[in-house]
Structures are given as C-alpha cells and as structure tokens.
Amino acid sequence: MSSLQDKVTLCESIVAYEFTDEVLCVKALSAYAACVIIQGRTQNLQHNSHMAVYGDAVSASYLCQWTAIRESVLGNANLAAVGFRYNLDRCVLLNPGTTAVSDKTMATTVEAILGAVHVDGGDAALGMVMAKLGLTHALLDVVTYNFHLILGR
C-alpha cells in the first residue's frame, strides 16, 4: 500500500469516518515533514505532532469527567495498541529511512487522527470514531433498565 490516496482510504475504512477534507487525514498520518501532492496541489506537511496535541486535547475533553478512565483509554500504551490492532500502522507516512512504526509514532498518529476527525466533523464525528476504535469505557456507556421487569411488576 504505497499510494497516499490508498493510505487515506484505508485509514477512513478503519476508523469508519470519511473526511470531508482529506488533507486533514494526510496531515494526521504524516509521521515526518514531507512535500507531497494532495488533490493535485503540492503541500508541505509538518510532522503530525501538532495535530496529535490537538487530538489528545479534544479526546481528553470528550472523556473529561473521568480522570482515571481517561488515562486508561487515552494513555499512549493503549493508543499504540489500538492503532496496531486496527492496522493503522499501514497508513502512517514514514520517513523513507524508517522501516517500522514505533509505539510512540503509533500513539501520536492515533491522537492526530482523532484531532483531524474533530477538526473535520466536530464532536459527533470524534465520538463515533472513538467508539469505533474502542476508545471508550464501560462506565461511560448509557445503560437503561426496565425496573418493572426487575421488580416483577
């Protein structure tokens, strides 16, 4: 999977979100500064760390009421594991001299993807992608009960 468009398409498929602005996805996937052609225009891409900082902040805000849960869900170890589990490493744009995606790069890229999704689609899109990737916690799930059945009435 070498083409930039293929990487964007794969990422969109994995996170179940189609970017309105695909440039945001490319920026999120870029693990190094590069000059690429996107949608027929030459773009100078920065390392995805800026988008990752934003993604970290908005995803933390999404889970802001639950400090311990936030750390277990959004800690770098979990983000890296989630990224590899969903094969997002196949989407990362690596420096030509780099042969593998490190845990740190994977965690940063997942944060950057979350940031790009939020910039592109807002809170609802972010929540949907976080749920798709399993970046949630059972305590945050809404559960409804039929108390009449429980109480036998």
What topology does this entry show?
Elements (H helix, E strand, L loop, with lengths): L3 H12 L6 H8 L4 E5 L2 E5 L3 H14 L4 H8 L1 H10 L17 H30 L14 H5 L2
Antiparallel strand pairs: 1-2
Helix pairs in contact: 1-2, 2-6, 3-6, 5-6
Strand and helix order? HHEEHHHHH
User: So, the CATH homologous superfamily?
Assistant: Ribonuclease III domain
Number of helices: 7
Ends apart, CA distance between termini: 59 Å
The global form is: globular
**According to CATH, what is the topology?**
Ribonuclease iii, N-terminal Endonuclease Domain, Chain A
CATH class: Mainly Alpha
Determine Rg (CA atoms, Å).
17 Å
Query: Regions with pLDDT < 50 over 5+ consecutive residues?
Result: none
The side-by-side strand order for the widest beta sheet comes to 1-2
Global mean pLDDT: 85
What is the total number of structural domains?
1
Largest sheet: 2 strands, antiparallel
Q: How many β strands by DSSP? A: 2
Please name the defining characteristics of this protein.
RNase III domain-containing protein, mainly alpha, two-stranded antiparallel sheet, Ribonuclease iii, N-terminal Endonuclease Domain, Chain A, 153 residues, ribonuclease III activity
